[in-house]
Amino acid sequence: MLSRTAADLYWMSRYLERAENMARMLDVSHSLSLMPQGGRGDGLEELAMPLLITGTLDAYLERHGELDAERILHFFALDADNPASLYSCLRAARANAHAVRGRITADVWENINATWLEMRHIAAQSPANFGASHFCEWVKERSHLFRGATEGTIMRGNAYRFIRLGTFIERADNTLRLLDARNQLMGDEPPGDSSARDYFQWSALLRALSAYEAHAALYRGSPRVAQVAELLLLRPEVPRSLRSCIGALSQILAEIPGNNGRPAQRMAAELEARLRFTGIEEVLEEGLQAWIHDYILLVRQLGSAVHSAYLEAV
Amino acid sequence: MKLAIHHGTTYRYADQVRASIQYLRLTPQDSPRQRVLDWALELPQSAHAQRDGHGNILHVLTLDEPHQAIVIKAHGHVEIDESCESESDPGSPLPYLCSTALTAADAALRTFARSVCGKSRDRAALIGLMERLYQHMPFTPGATRVETTAAQAFALGAGVCQDHTHVFLACVRSLGIPARYVSGYLCAAGSDQLVSHAWAEAWLEGAWYSFDVTNQLARPERHLKLAVGLDYLDACPVRGMCRGGGQEQMHAQLQVVPQQQEQAQEQ
Amino acid sequence: MVRSTYDEMYDVRGDCRAHYRTFARWLAATPAEQLEQRRREADLLFHRAGITFTLYGDDQGTERLIPFDTIPRSIPASEWRKIEQGCIQRVRALNMFLSDLYHDQRIVKAGIVPAEQVLANEGYQLAMQGIDLPHNLYAHIAGVDLVRDGDGTYYVLEDNLRTPSGVSYMLENRKMMMRLFPELFAGQRIAPVNHYPNLLLDTLKSSSLVDHPSVVVLTPGRYNSAYFEHAFLAREMGVELVEGADLFVRDERVYMRTTAGPQPVDVIYRRIDDAFLDPLAFNPDSMLGVPGLLAAYRKGNVVLANAIGTGVADDKSIYPYVPEMIRFYLDEEPILQNVPTWQCRKPAELSHVLANLEQLVVKETQGSGGYGMLVGPAASQAEIETFRARLKANPAAYIAQPTLSLSTCPTFVDSGIAPRHIDLRPFVLSGREVRLVPGGLTRVALREGSLVVNSSQGGGTKDTWVVEEPTVAAESREV
């Protein structure tokens, strides 16, 4: 397969996964910001979280001056100039899909094209009318449909593999960043005396990553940092956990024919082994934040290795 | 006269370059005017030689390991016959009537050429053109850029040897005379100042005659020819592209030493 | 001025020509509503399949359909054989001309074509001097544009030797007709065209001296107006569709970047103009090409189809010499005629042209796409005067020809069925042998009276049939 084709497939699914993650993040921030903030006031911290996670705080402040719920929502939902917005992600995904129209099934193409057309339609109306939650739900649904169409119709070959690579690289990065941001926010609080707030915060994160039920099934009681971290980093049962994503990446990379991917294949296998044989107490001992930052870097390196092995292949 | 040449060019990139490819026209050929006694290129990797459509010797250098700089060195000895005024060529001169993006004559250039040369199309007319042209656009480093066209440079009234040559080619071709771009080295008379240089050749009475507008020379003196073409892009010593690497910087060191002088230095 | 026009379907007395009779009977017997419904179906199918050409990029939905007319253009097989022989003869001579031009220039030395006409031509590529191409082939794929004058004589209007396009419409039009009207194909013998992609792949493979050459189609990208055709041909041939950035040159060999590492490329069916092929040799700003490609090409390590520098042979200033080329290289008389042409660079011919501008078609020698031309009988006095001034200022840039009437073919229009002017572009493939599939692309000028068939100016297309005349053939065999 041409490297350019592989790159288009990979980025198509990365952008769609990014859109879904962004929708999850927005949904949670939005609903949390409406909650009583335990004496700290206006929920701005919560609202600003997507800006911090995506590194767009400065860009936002430059354009809009102050933090404002409505404007932040617009910034992430519809702003064509914000590369992290849902609008931009869906537009980019559609452009990638268009470039490889001949390589994906009509079902997949029509799903992505229809998503984009509807996005434009929504953008033409006022987003407020549509409802923030409703809008985020819609994006998630479109993403589920895309995955379903991919799973159900794409031939099991390189096209399928590169589509999935994009999904899991993006998802691994996202899970790490969300956990990191929430953990840092909690770290500012003196421990122990804010259990209600703890509860809201951790459950919001678990909900954002569709892991609330998994937590309830695997652990008893209110979510606490050790359990949440173990669940989202090390448990193979949770589809959005780091371990699941790296496991999938390692397996997909092993299936791609050719020798030029060896560095990437080796790296993914090593990462997977490290996760498999790491206990959460070791992570906490090292310091959760430092450990996560390490892994954000490692996932990025894996992304570069995939890039130089397959997507630009000189 | 015997010339000893040491030419080194270093391309530095701001960031590491992933891959690069260069067309090198850095090898002189024998002609009635110049006899190559010895010549060698030092390249970061071996490169095959071939002839391009103009008959120049072309090396294609491809580097696919990441690198931050490329060093290209050329050195050798060449015997110049200063009495030789013109050179013949087995190929037809007619393709050198075509203009290119860099050498297209606009109305101003056509008018200028006709006003200077009138109906005459001989060497004297072109020498007159060369002189008037230099008066119109004196040598002015920094006024133009590599991609400046003949018409733009003429309108500016300034330029370097590349611009002088382009403008001269545009005028001469507009008069119906085939003309071509020459790139090479020049050892200026009476000094040991040595430069990469460009001049023109026009086809008159069955042979190519040189016109060095920048130095107002209608016959080559210490000119060593490397390559010819329709314009700078065809004949330039190094033309390359790279993937990644940011801003490119070029450092050239040039030494074209008349042989006796070099011996004198050695003594 | 009244001119006679040749109609493909009806003779001067209004009787249906023999090779159209089966179709005419079918047309008369088919209810109008049914035809209308099938035409709507065709539009829908073309849209759904994305058989479009792009006007200004795709983002704002400017992909357009080229109008497809369901009344076919039909050519009797006996007539086709002459067209076929004529095209083969012509393309062979043009390839020999190109080879000669970039080598010994015998035709120049023989005084048949003036040296400055070819060597100082902008289409002449110095880059092609001194290299030998496999089988001496330059134009592997050629499109020969034919028109018919009032008496039905075929004339070659121009040769397209660079990157002729339109063959995908020939193939899709046939597919569509067979799908909509299968009964028409059951009732008579219509020569098939759908093996064209196989012939093309075979031609491309045989253009290389390598044993099992790897072939790619090189496109400028999906914003190019003919992108659909590039993708279509790559898919039909089962080869990769690449852009410049997918290829790279190392040690004077061309490779494509794939997920399994670099893969060598031996033959490039390129749909990019010469000037954009190699930014190190031609237009330095080109992002479409491959740096180093020319060096690999001159080394003989890759085949470009078509070769660089074929434009010199399809330039309008060279066109008048093609009949002489056929005599010079093949020692044959031309089977197909040239349109009589005045070369304005010759003073005597220029004055004839200037005196008769109202009746002539004046064309730029470097122009294409139907923009830089004057159609005298259809032009206003002001337009004629503009061209007169241009001709006087730069006569060598123009040729002139009599206004041909162009044959007509019945076509569906708003008011029903009416005659519209058409041309014909057969596609000639030169490999081990010179071949064409029976038929070609018929373009139709949809505006009443218009002679401009270009799709960029509102032209449509028709399926092109080569039909055996069964009764005549059977009778003659019995005699």
UniProtKB/TrEMBL annotation, chain A:
Per its UniProt entry, which superkingdom is the organism in? Bacteria
Family annotation (Pfam families): Alpha-E
Q: Report the residue ranges that make up the DUF403 domain in this protein.
A: 1-311
Kindly give the InterPro entries that the UniProt entry links to this protein. Answer: ATP-dep_Glu-Cys_Ligase-2, DUF403
The name under which this protein is listed is Uncharacterized conserved protein, Alpha-E superfamily
This protein's species is Pseudomonas linyingensis
TrEMBL record, chain B:
Where would I find the Transglutaminase-like domain in this sequence? 153-215
Q: Which Pfam families match?
A: Bact_transglu_N, Transglut_core
| The entry's keywords | Hydrolase, Protease
In its UniProt entry, what is this protein called? Transglutaminase-like enzyme, putative cysteine protease
Biological process according to GO: proteolysis
Cite the source lineage: Bacteria, Pseudomonadati, Pseudomonadota, Gammaproteobacteria, Pseudomonadales
A single MF term (Gene Ontology): peptidase activity
Write down the superkingdom of origin: Bacteria
Keyword Protease in annotation: yes
Automatic annotation (TrEMBL), chain C:
Q: Provide the Circularly permuted ATP-grasp type domain boundaries.
A: 72-445
Q: Which domain of life is it from?
A: Bacteria
Q: What name has this protein been given in UniProt?
A: Uncharacterized conserved protein, circularly permuted ATPgrasp superfamily
Question: What is the species of this protein?
Answer: Pseudomonas linyingensis
